[in-house]
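Reopening this one. Same input as before:
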Amino acid sequence: MEAPIENDLCTRIKRSEQALMAHHEAVLRAYGLTMTQYTVLLILSREGGMSGAQLARSCGVTQQTMSSVLTNMENKELIHRETSPVHGKVQIATLTDEGRALFDHAYQEVIVLEDALTNAFTPAEHASLCELLERATTVLTEQTRHATAPPAT
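Same output, byte for byte:
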């Protein structure tokens, strides 16, 4: 007999992810941002200018989705795009002052959850949980590669 579904690690990871997304979406809605838009603002605030392809990889979305996200963000004047000096067909996205200000305000609310989660664990538990989640992510990524690889002939 199999263990109850509550013991299934994939189910627990999914429930945690859903709770995290629900919280972030509720907070970000007040700022007119989606989770992907917020993630773009976060990445650009830390990394500086990036191409749409780089942002798509960082956010875990397709390039087509990122193109739409960036167009929407540019229309809201949250980002500015200009042609890369290295490659004429590549557009580099950077934060505008408005994008930086909106990110800074939203981040102050998002960080409340990060602090609450951090404070829910001892420093050793926090470090262990981070390591365990990284290990789980590695396994999930590897399994996904195997699941999408063509069958060996």
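So the earlier flakiness isn't reproducible anymore. For the record, Helices lie at 9-29, 35-47, 52-59, 63-75, 97-119, 123-148.
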